[in-house]
From TrEMBL:
TM stretches of this protein: 9-30, 99-122, 142-164, 176-198, 246-266, 278-299
Family: Belongs to the binding-protein-dependent transport system permease family.
Protein name, UniProt field: ABC transporter permease
Keyword annotations: Cell membrane, Membrane, Transmembrane, Transmembrane helix, Transport
Organism: Nesterenkonia natronophila
Signal sequence annotation: none
Keyword Nucleotide-binding: no
Major localisation: membrane
Protease recorded as keyword: no
InterPro entries: BPD_transp_1_N, MetI-like, MetI-like_sf
Cell location: Cell membrane
Amino acid sequence: MLLNALRRVGVFALTVFVASLVVFFLLGVLPGDPARAQLGLQASEEQVQALREQLGVDRPLPVRYLEWITGFFTGDMGVSYASRSPVGPQVLDALQVTLLLVLGGIGVAVLIALPLGILAAVRHHRPDGTLFSGLSQLGISIPNFLAGLLLIAVFSVALGWLPSGGWQPPVAGVDFLRHIALPALALGLVNGAILARYTRAAVLEVMREDFMRTARAKGLKPGAALVRHGLRNALVPVVTVTSIEFANLIIGAVVIETVFVIPGLGSTLIRAVANRDLIMIQSIVMCVVILVLLVNLLVDLLRPVIDPRLRIAS
């Protein structure tokens, strides 16, 4: 098991390295000139060349890559082309906001998916089970931004219970919870519906297994057999899908941050793209890539703990 964990960590490190090459060189070969974008069309070639030298974009791509990736992993992500301020503090501040939003969305998704998926599976032959499945299908069809706008219309505009936008840090206590409630709900509703479908399928598959029939034959009621023997087996594919949904949550957070005016990675990335701030863009993209890969690594390490059979297979 230890050898398998070390192998997965090695694959993670290699993937991060390859991803850094792809991110940097793809952005580096894009058409356009950051210096010209900053100075405008009226600037002279001498002014543009001076700014290129100041920003360091006149140097060869391999040299710029080594400088960037070394600084990235030592905490020095460079200086923003647009604001001329250090990129690291800006990215880390935005990353904290996005992580809180994504964790809130995951919490909402799990609270929706597990009960809804289990009930839809257990009662799949009954009308209420069909209703639960229909609700999850309806949730999948609603985009994140539409869910956010509907929540704002109901809870902010019509009822006035919660703010329609803005952000407060966690130290604000109740104000933080009031500001994160609607964005986390909008982010988690759609992903919770998707996860509920996978939960239903996993529980249904486990309920048809021979060991479940044996448990019921020994006198356990269907509900008790599912709780004692079935849910742990159904949890492995659900946890795997949750790690995949984590990437979708980050992508959805870009839209939700725009709808609710939240200063996270999404809104920061949009501003960087508008300003052609390549150093900011590649640092944000790299942070997201590492975050997704890290979650996948943790899930890979967690699966043998949940299902001991995987330890033998690995």
